DNA sequence: AGGAAATAATAGCGATCACTACAATGCCCT
DNA sequence: AGGGCATTGTAGTGATCGCTATTATTTCCT
């Protein structure tokens, strides 16, 4: 009985950060529940034990992809809400920047954090919701800096509008049309804010 | 060896339509991917073969729940866009009706069709997208009836805004705050439409 | 009453899920 | 050179996925 040792493919190191990037694209495109560990290990060209040694769990990797997204593609709020802009101008810029970001890559439409919070998996959901809440609070702070008395109301409006942009992009609205909606939304709000004295 | 026939529970008829209603609640709350056939058969108190005999497949039942939702909870566009209202008034009413609908039942937030289109399953996705497209076209027709030259632009804006309401409700925004956003959004748009001569 | 059609129940199908035990391989340090 | 150790490989875990073959039961029609 020929029991000689099976040949084994030579061992290759694999780049953890590159794995996070590839996983981010997959999660963004198909959602947390739409990507299995098998698809991830195949995309990273590794095997399950390496996957778990590197990232702990599927949900753990998902969290790292979310953090990467915020760090690399998060909207620059402090720049958008610069002091030399009126609140209306700033929010218009925010709308346009978000619409551009959400529809730029047709392969990964919408806000990764917002869309990621729709995962059926409770762990993944909780992580995405937590990060999303941080973004909302940052927007609230930026708005409150210009208009403290209307901050709550305007934050609800802005965040809801941004959610709409993300969902529209995710549903396939083309970049040009989404940007037109963003400009229009900003224009409507800016006119109102100007007419009511800031 | 006592091989006497096992007792079988007496046979109960089951109400197909009631099954659709129960499934609708489950799908709406947890999403298509978040509800397994096991959960459905348990909720309907039937067994898998009865399930498939009645509904064909999980995706088939999902389609029936979507149709039920549209028939029973679809927004009454022809009433909202009645002729004695300006376009701004009509869209404001649409926004408020949608916000109310999406946030009324905390257990089933958002638009079932819109949120259903996020399913990872391609069949379920396709069905929800198709029905959603029909709703969008109905909105487009209603708007074009008032303002044919701006119908495309305004439909993009309105649909994107409604998507935002649905997503915000789904994310947990309370009814009162969502309604405030809806009133504000309608007000902004109505002012613009009035100022530019309808 | 008796046969046919319809519907339900038991039990289990293959596939995929996230995840892991264990052995072989490579690199670094002594 | 050789031991320690981290990391990879193969192979497979139990659980759940959507779904079904088969049998048992009831109802309806003649």
- Span from first to last CA of chain A? 87 Å
Largest interface: A-B, 38 and 38 residues
Number of helices of chain A: 10
Q: List the secondary-structure elements of chain A in sequence, H or E.
A: HHHHHHHHHH
As a percent range, the share of strand residues of chain A is under 5%
What is the mean pLDDT of chain A?
A: 93
What's the count of strands of chain A?
A: 0
The oligomeric status of these chains comes to homodimer
Backbone structural class of chain A: mainly alpha
| Percentage of residues in helical conformation of chain A | over 70%
- From the alpha carbons, calculate the radius of gyration of chain A and give it in angstroms: 21 Å
Largest sheet of chain A, in brief, is: none
Ranges of chain A where pLDDT stays below 50 over 5 or more residues in a row are 1-9
Number of domains of chain A: 2
Shape of chain A: elongated
3D architecture notes:
The structure is a homodimer of 198-residue chains. Chain A has 198 residues and is an all-alpha fold. Chain A folds into two domains: 54 residues, Arc Repressor Mutant, subunit A, CATH 1.10.10; 120 residues. Chain A is built from ten helices and no strands. The termini of chain A are far apart. The N terminus of chain A is likely disordered. The structure holds a DNA duplex (30 and 30 nucleotides).
């Amino acid at each position: 009985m020929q029991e000689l040792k099976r040949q084994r493919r030579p061992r290759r190191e694999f780049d953890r950060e590159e794995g996070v990037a590839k996983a981010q694209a997959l999660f963004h495109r198909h959602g947390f529940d739409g990507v299995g560990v098998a698809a991830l290990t195949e995309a990273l060209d590794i095997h399950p034990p390496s996957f778990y040694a590197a990232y702990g769990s599927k949900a753990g990797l998902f969290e790292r992809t979310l953090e990467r997204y915020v760090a690399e593609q998060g909207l620059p709020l402090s720049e958008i809400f610069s002091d030399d802009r009126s609140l209306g101008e700033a929010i218009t810029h925010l709308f346009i920047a978000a619409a551009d970001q959400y529809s730029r890559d047709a392969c990964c439409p919408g806000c990764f954090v917002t869309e990621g919070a729709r995962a059926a998996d409770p762990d993944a959901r909780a992580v995405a919701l937590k990060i999303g809440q941080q973004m909302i609070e940052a927007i609230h702070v930026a708005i409150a800096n210009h208009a403290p008395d209307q901050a709550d109301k305007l934050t609800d409006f802005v965040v809801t509008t941004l959610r709409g942009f993300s969902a529209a992009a995710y549903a396939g609205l083309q970049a040009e049309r989404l940007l037109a909606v963003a400009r229009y939304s900003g224009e409507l709000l800016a006119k109102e804010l100007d007419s009511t004295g800031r």
